[in-house]
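Handout, page 2. Input:
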Amino acid sequence: MADSKPPVILAVDGSDNADQAFDWYMKNFYKPGVKLILLHCPEIYLYDYNMSPGRVSELQREVSENTTALKDKWAAKTAGAGVPAEFMIEYSQKPGHAIVDVANRAGAGCIVTGTRGLGKVRRTLLGSVSDHVIHHASCPVLVCRT
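Output:
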């Protein structure tokens, strides 16, 4: 029974890092019968109050189009690998928080994510999704650095 095993959350975006994390997961960690949840967390930016409603609509449309394209890409990638997966979207201003929240709600057994490989200074200034997930997740986290 596949549902009795906790799912694996794989954080995905349009980067090569996400593709490499998926490939590493499939080669080294994948187990048939474990549900794979592909989680995409598009960032919702706080819009400038001086921004026109037309510009806000344009940005929302871009996010929607990019998310649809990403969903199609990952559906093809998982189907090609013969892996049943659920694509989930969680909008957030802070993707790291969203990943941890979804993992908690899903009762995840593990979170898999890629990393951009930022140095300490850039990571401190820009923040790091993988750092946040490592420090706040209640399940094991696998960060694939390639």
